[in-house]
Amino acid sequence: ARADVGVVGLAVMGSNLARNLARHGHTVALYNRSPEKTRALVAEHGDEGEFVPSESLEDFVASLTTPRVVISMVQAGAGTDAVVDAVADLLEPGDMVVDGGNALFGDTIRRTQALAARKLHFVGAGVSGGEEGALNGPSIMVGGSEAAYETLGPIVESIAAQVDGTPCAAHLGTDGAGHFVKMVHNGIEYADMQLIGEAYDLLRHVVGLSPAEIADVFREWNTGELDSFLIEITAEVLAHVDGATGQPFADVVLDEAGMKGTGTWTVQTALSLGTPVSGIAEAVFARALSSHRETRDAVQAAFGVSSGSATPVPDDVPGFVEAVRRALYASKIVSYAQGFDMLSAGAAEHGWDLDMGTIARIWRGGCIIRARFLDRITDAYREHPGLVSLLTAPVFHEALDGAGDAWRDVVAAAVRAGVPVPGFSAALAAFDGARRDRLPAALVQGQRDLFGAHTYRRVDREGSFHVLWGEDRREVRA
Ligand code: 6PG
């Protein structure tokens, strides 16, 4: 036995993670169900470090020094259960299985308990950064026990992205905490992508800029407070020209967005926690709407096709472009504030001691939502550990307060042009909702009391009350 860490599942993410480990001096045991992938990895990249390939799970486990650390990089769901069960059968007390896939955190909690009963460690670790990140430095959100992290920490910290000399990997909480945080990361990723898409749509169909011109706008934005990986790659996608037709690539791609389900999980979980993540929800629904081709065709046939381009171009184009930038930044702040609210709610529900500053810190590099902006969030939590909402962090005050008119102008212009901006308007509504002195929720309480005697509380007295609506409309204490 000589490998200090093993990787099971050698599709792109798994083999890139294995190579990353080997490049950082680890001796990496390899196993894949079909041995061709294992052989290909060793043939093509065997010179990058020390690999110990096996063609049976027994040999793979035997090639690891104890306590064994086995990282599973297989599909979430049944695939992960199959691998975890098969590996666990061969392990000894004290060994560890790490799930680096996009598992649902509830499954991770269940697997942690099942393996603990067999005296095995199970660690759910969210790995973000796609194929490139897995190879060159991902962001790694680690759950599981403190004891497991003592062994695993040095391994993941050695292969994670580094920002300012600190690794973008940390132990965030017990059992499913790592996968929970990764799930919220993905939800925020969806919201960021949707907001950027809406900004593009406005610049294209309200302002009338070409994809190449919009690429330049995004490149410019990427030098300021919006500086982020997603803005950078958006410019790259927009500047790309289709080889076959010579058309902008953005115009030849079918406008039906796919999704593998992590955004949906985020929203489902937020609904059960009662946390409004409207920006993430709108992003998931916008992808769903885009893919409902039949509905789109039927509505277009019934009402005519709208392209948004028929609306007059704003008089002050640079001013409008700047307004879109401000609206995008303000909406992004709201969507992150909602994401962090959800992290707090999840922590309270599951008994995790999530440190928001640490989460923002390990999202600064490696992951899909990496951005300069996350430094500000880290600082905000460091300076104000009890921060109730990111919206109130002094670093964002100017961006939210100053965006007011621009935000409203942009949403109004989009609405008039028939360009849907569910992300921008949901964010603005969330901000306005939080700022209102009185919300129509009072009326909803009245309606609930009338039809269902659900009771209400008063502004001027403690207690719960009910009006005898069907009788003399006296108020009684409930
Ligand atoms: C990451 C990503 C990744 C996710 C893809 C695709 O952090 O590296 O979040 O885990 O699988 O982004 O997600 P969708 O297919 O749902 O868009």
TrEMBL record:
Residues 178-470 form the 6-phosphogluconate dehydrogenase C-terminal domain. It catalyses: 6-phospho-D-gluconate + NADP(+) = D-ribulose 5-phosphate + CO2 + NADPH. Pathway: Carbohydrate degradation; pentose phosphate pathway; D-ribulose 5-phosphate from D-glucose 6-phosphate (oxidative stage): step 3/3. Its EC number is 1.1.1.44. The keyword Transport does not apply. Pfam families: 6PGD, NAD_binding_2. One of its GO terms (molecular function) is phosphogluconate dehydrogenase (decarboxylating) activity. Keywords: Gluconate utilization, NADP, Oxidoreductase, Pentose shunt. It is an enzyme of class 1 (oxidoreductase). Belongs to the 6-phosphogluconate dehydrogenase family. Catalyzes the oxidative decarboxylation of 6-phosphogluconate to ribulose 5-phosphate and CO(2), with concomitant reduction of NADP to NADPH. Homodimer. This is 6-phosphogluconate dehydrogenase, decarboxylating. The lineage of its organism: Bacteria, Bacillati, Actinomycetota, Actinomycetes, Micrococcales. The gene is gndA.
